[in-house]
Description:
0% strand, Transcriptional regulator, 77% helix, elongated, mainly alpha
Amino acid sequence: MQREDVLEHALHVLEREGIASTTLEMVAHEADYPVQEVKQFWPDSEALLYDALRYLSQQVDAWRRQLMLNEELSLEQKLLKRYQALTECVSNQRYPGCLFIAACTFYPDASHPIHQLADQQKKAAWEYTHELLTQLEVDDPTMVAHQMELVLEGCLSKLLVKRSQADIDTARRLAEDILRFAQCRQGGALT
């Protein structure tokens, strides 16, 4: 078994059990891999969490890059594609919530490497949104990016608790409204 396979299983356990409850033993059991061999890669749960979040970060970054390069999608579709991805997760009985938000909560010290990694991912998400909004030439893309990311983070946080597709649908509609409102403001319709 490869490290990436164990990390993929670790992400499933983290989503299901949460950061505070996940142990090396749980991940080894989920991966059907001897715990002693898992400990050769990661001496403790914190080391495994760091690598799992780094691995997830790389997956998310690659997904965003693919979206940015996808010429078949409009800028608006690229902005809202994250909600479709969340819907696909829920349909597969996966409830990702936001492991990055949870990591910042569990490791509140801003100098902790796990907190820094999570914060870096949040900044990358904001930059992705800001870049697309700038390309759309909306009025005040900085403020609109903050609004859209706040809605997404609220949705992700609720997924950690409620695990409801309805929350994803509501957040998507709210994000669409924010985007439409910003485009109307940019066009002078609201002045």
